[in-house]
Protein: Alpha-1,4 glucan phosphorylase
Organism: Phleum pratense
Amino acid sequence: GLGRLAACFLDSMATLNLPAWGYGLRYRYGLFKQRIAKEGQEEIAEDWLEKFSPWEIVRHDVVYPVRFFGHVEILPDGRRKSAGGEVLNALAYDVPIPGYKTKNAISLRLWDAKASAEDFNLFQFNDGQYESAAQLHSRAQQICAVLYPGDATEEGKLLRLKQQFFLCSASLQDIIFRFKERKADRVSGKWSEFPSKVAVQMNDTHPTLAIPELMRLLMDEEGLGWDEAWDVTNKTVAYTNHTVLPEALEKWSQSVMRKLLPRQMEIIEEIDKRFREMVISTRKDMEGKLDSMSVLDNSPQKPVVRMANLCVVSAHTVNGVAELHSNILKEELFADYVSIWPKKFQNKTNGITPRRWLRFCNPELSEIVTKWLKTDQWTSNLDLLTGLRKFADDEKLHAEWAAAKLASKKRLAKHVLDATGVTIDPTSLFDIQIKRIHEYKRQLMNILGAVYRYKKLKEMSAEEKQKVTPRTVMVGGKAFATYTNAKRIVKLVNDVGAVVNNDPDVNKYLKVVFIPNYNVSVAEVLIPGSELSQHISTAGMEASGTSNMKFSLNGCVIIGTLDGANVEIREEVGEDNFFLFGAKADQVAGLRKDRENGLFKPDPRFEEAKQYIRSGTFGTYDYTPLLDSLEGNSGFGRGDYFLVGYDFPSYIDAQARVDEAYKDKKRWIKMSILNTAGSGKFSSDRTIDQYAKEIWGITANPVP
C-alpha cells in the first residue's frame, strides 16, 4: 500500500518540477509472488531482479558505512561516538522518475547492502570454512532480501529493525553529503541553514530512526551541541501517519534497540527525558498523561520504544492522509499532543497519478474524455474533469462511454481466463474488491454476501432467476505470509468460486473468481474493467485507501462505508452516485461495547450465510476458526471486532440497490460518468502541491 502511494507521489513530484526525490531499499525478492494451490495461498520469491532491471543505474561511487551493534565510546573532549560492532556498506542504485511533459527527472535512490573485501576471511575460506569465511557478506544479503520479513521470531524483529536503520542511516548520510558538497565553503555555525535546504518526510513509522540518526550525525560527526542539533532535526523532519491500527504503530523492544543501536538508543532516551521535563515545567495539567505520551514505555513486563510518539514529539508537522483520518488523529490517537502543539497537525488527503491510472491504463476512456473536454490538459490538471458533468445525460456520450467500458471488460475477461482458467461473461456486472487481504478491509463480508447470493439463487425457480442481475464477483490481494485468518479468507474465496462456477443451475447468474498475484500491472487491467468496486472497511479503520480513487476515476461506482477517503469521494461524486451502507466511525466504539455486553442480535441472513459455509457446501476444509472470529461477545480472535455481523444487513440491502440500478443502463452510465467527473480532487498532483507549500516549503524548479 505505501509503495503504490509513493509511486504516485514520485510521479507528481517529477511532473510538478519539484526538487525532491525518494529513498528506499533495493529488495531482491520484493514481498512475494502469490500462487493459489489446493491449500490456498502459496508465497514464492518474486524474481523481478533475476532478469536484471533496465531502469536502475548503479552508483559505485555512492557508498556509505552503516554500523550495527558495538558500543559507545567517550572521547577526551567529552563527545560520544559509536565504535565496534559490524559495519556494512550501503551502495546506491538510482531509478530515474521522469516527469510528464517536462524535462524534469527525479530519482528514486535505492540502497543495497554489501560487505567489503576486508570482511572476507581468505584464510578460513581456504581452510574449507566457506560459511564462516563470508559471514558478514551473508548478513549483508539478508538486509535487502525481502520486504517485510516475518517478525514472529526475535531474529525476524531484529532483521526488520536492521532494514529500517539501514535505510535511514544511508539516506541521511547522503543528504548531509549533498548539503556539504553544495556548500563547500561551509564553516561551523551554518548548520542553521540546513532545514531551509532539506526537508525529510517520514512515510509512516518505518523510517522513525531518521530522528536519532540525524541527531547522531549532527552531534558526533559534525560536532554540534544537543540544542543546535535538536533545533535542526525538529525543523527538518515531518511525519505522515498512515494507520490507526494499534499493531501497525510500531513499538520496539528497548533491549533489542539498545543492543543493535546503542548510541541511537542513548539519544532516544535523552529525547524522552527532555520531553518529560518540558511537559512538567510548562504544562503541569498534562503530567498525568505523561505515561501514555512519552517516547519510552518503561513498563517492567515489556519496556518498548513507541515510534509514533517519537515521531510526534520530534517532527515539526504531523499529517493524516484523509479528512476523517486526520480528525481521528487529532481527536483520539494524538489528542494529548494537540493540546501542547495545536498547529503541528494537518491533513493531506492522498491522491493518485492520472497519468498511470487513467491516461495509460484506460486508453479508450481517455480518448473519450479528451474528445468531450476538447483538451488533453486534464492529464496534468485533473479538476478539468468537472467539465464532463454537463454531458452526463448526452446519449452520444453514453454510447461511447458504454463501448469503452465493454472494451475494458473484454480485456479483463481475457486476463481472468489466462490467469485462472475461468470464463466470465462481459455483459454481467463486474464487481471487484482488490486490496491487501486484512480482516479490517472485510473481504470476509464480501464473500459471505456472495455465499448468501448463491444460496438464494439455488432456492429460486427458473422464472425468478430470469429477473436476477447477473454478476461476476472478483477478489484479489495478497495475505501476509504469517497472517492465518487472512490466508483462510483467500482459501474461502477460492473454495466458494470452485463450487459456484461449476454449478450449471447458477453460473449464468453468478461467478466468483479469486484473481491471483494482485499487483500494479494486474490493477491496470482490473480497474478500467470494473463497474462496481467494494471499499467496505469498518468505519474509522482505513486511513485513506487509494484504490477507491483509481476505480472512481475510471468511472466505476463504489459500494462502501463512510471510511477513509470514501467520505470525500462521496462528497465529490455526489451521494446518488455512491452506494453507502454500514456504521459510522463515531458509532464503532459503542457498538463494540454493546457486543461485549451481549446486546448484539444477528440478522437471520447473516446466520444463514455462515451456516451454509459450516454445512460443508464449499468443501471439507474446516472454516470454524475463521467463522469463530465472528462469534461470541469477547475474547482473543472472537467477538467480531470488525463488525461484519452488524454491517451485514445494510450491506446486503445496498447490494440489492446495486442490482436494481444496474438494470437501468441509462442511470448506471450516468453514475459512471459522474464518478469520473468528480475525481479531480484525488490527483496526487494536488496532494503533493499541498505537501510542497504547507510542509516542505519548496517551489517548482523546472529544468530550463
